[in-house]
Amino acid sequence: MPQKPFSETDLPVFDRAPSVILVTGPLDFFVEEAAAKTADALASAGTERVRFDDEAAPEAIADALLNRSLFSPRRIVQLDVTRLVGTEAPASLLEAAVEAWEKETPAARREAFRLARALLSALGLDRAADPDEVAEAACRKTRRKDDAPTLAALLRELPEDRGAPALLLPSLRTILERGNDGIVALLTATAPPKGAGLVDEVAKKGLVLEVGADALREALARYARARAAEREVALDPDAIERLRFQTNERPDLFAAELSKLLDWAGKGGRVRAADVRSQVEDEAAEELYGLFETIGRRDAGASLGRLERMLSGRGVRVGDREIDTEEYWPVRLLGLLTGEIRRMLLLRFLLDDRSIGYSAGMSFPTFQARVLPRLLEARARSGKPLAQGKPFGVFKLAERAARFHTEELARALARAAEVDVQLKNSTPSLDALSAYVGGLIAGL
Q1: Which residues contact 281 (CB under 8 A, 6 or more apart)?
Q2: Do both 259 and 312 map to the same domain?
Q3: Where are the beta strands (DSSP E) in 118-242?
Q4: Are residues 189 and 227 in the same domain?
Q5: What is the maximal distance between C-alpha atoms in the chain?
Q6: Whether 188 contacts 3, CB under 8 Å
Q7: Using CA atoms, how far apart are residues 419 and 417, in angstroms rounded to an integer?
Q8: Looking at residues 109-124, what average pLDDT do you find?
Q9: Rg of the Cα trace of the chain?
Q10: Do 22 and 107 belong together in one domain?
């Protein structure tokens, strides 16, 4: 079965489920929530549910995985394999471990131990070393130095492992090959690294359910509300939305900044959107289409502001897709800009034909019913390609193109080669691209 996004409406029932299901996500909170819903969907009358924690002996887990139940024809075996596959979110594990430890209840302590083991495994730290030194190293690597005393106290109480988690691999591979004969292993892993061996094996022969972007916004809100309730802090809905935006919906960053805000507010305090603005650095990704829109409005101030943000090192996205800005980004950004100008120029050329019937301020339904068919006909007659995309995208492109003359767009396109040379000759990228965009908007 494939790896696919987690969806409550598309969860397998036991008899049609593969023998191994792995639930993954960017935060432990999301993973546990999704795994509980998956277990409920799998379970039916008489289904035995066995859940193991990190303190369970590998021999006991292997026995439950490989041998049928004496009491039921169906068995669900739940265990976390984050330590086995690794994780790309150690900072989130550290935060959750510290929070659980500070609750001082038996259940929370067990959860803190589980998270601490996964943390040490992810960072490659030896738990047998001095707890203070291990805690200091872990907090330094995750940039959470203030948590070192609490983590050290946790590590001093951490029980010895009963066995290496890697001993479970043969058992998991056996039931993967064997298929569902009455036993389903429901595994969880928080932010497993790409290419992790077990994850790929389950994706090929079992099922990997990933809590992804489709459910992320509401999941972040639930996470924030749950953490605020635990700390007895009032958290405004607008504050959650502002935090989601300023952390660019990165779960690890969202969780880290939320923890700082709740600490800042204190028990009985309140966090408002204005507090998020003042306390949290804005890491929001810049939207490429937003730059195209401000250029299309011929708004120089907004366009140059967006351009500066795009060159500042923050994330840049197109819709939901993140753009790689690591290598040759200014040159590639120039290419994206000139691509947009080329599309505007070609559409502006078609709009110059009065028989097309386009006018500024036209509504989208009118454009789609009257103008779009004529644009398609004009494209066929002239051989000029029409911008690809959905009708609304063509409508927005027409709005942008209509605010420029054909000659202005043509001049800007001709200047692109000169700007490309400037960028490759070490001219400051912001200076070169700002002059280019400013000249386009001014019609120079």
Answers
A1: 246
A2: no
A3: 183-190, 207-210, 234-235
A4: no
A5: 83
A6: no
A7: 5
A8: 81
A9: 28
A10: yes
Q: In angstroms, what CA-CA distances link 413 with 305, 387, 438?
A: 22, 16, 13
352-364 pLDDT tens trace: 888 888 888 788 8
Q: Would the pLDDT of 201 be above 80?
A: yes
Tell me the sheet residues that pair with 187: 22, 79
Paired with 323 in beta bridges are 316
- Please give the DSSP secondary-structure letter assigned to residue 249: T
Per DSSP, the residues of 325-351 read -SSSHHHHHHHHHHHHHHHHHHHHHHH
Q: Are 279 and 261 in contact (CB under 8 A)?
A: yes
End-to-end CA distance of the chain: 57
Please check the confidence at residue 86 and state whether its pLDDT lies above 80: no
For residues 163 and 110, state if they share a domain.
yes
Judgement on whether residues 143 and 190 belong to the same structural domain of the protein: yes
Number of domains forming the structure of the chain: 3
224 and 178, same structural domain? Answer: no
Torsion angles phi and psi, residue 406, rounded to 5: -55, -40
Sheet holding 207-210, edge to edge: 3-5, 207-210, 20-25, 183-190, 75-80, 48-51
Q: Most confidently modeled of 118-122, 191-195, 220-224?
A: 220-224
Distance CA 72, CA 255 (A): 40
- Residue-range definition of the domain harbouring residue 77: 1-211
Looking at residue 236, its pLDDT comes to: 92
Residues 317 and 428 in one domain: yes
Q: What is the DSSP string of 359-377?
A: -TT--HHHIIIIIHHHHHH
In terms of domains, do 198 and 220 share one?
A: no
Q: Which two tokens stand for residue 162?
A: 């009963």
Residue with tokens 């039921």: 72
Band of residue 329 on the pLDDT scale cut at 50, 70, 90: confident
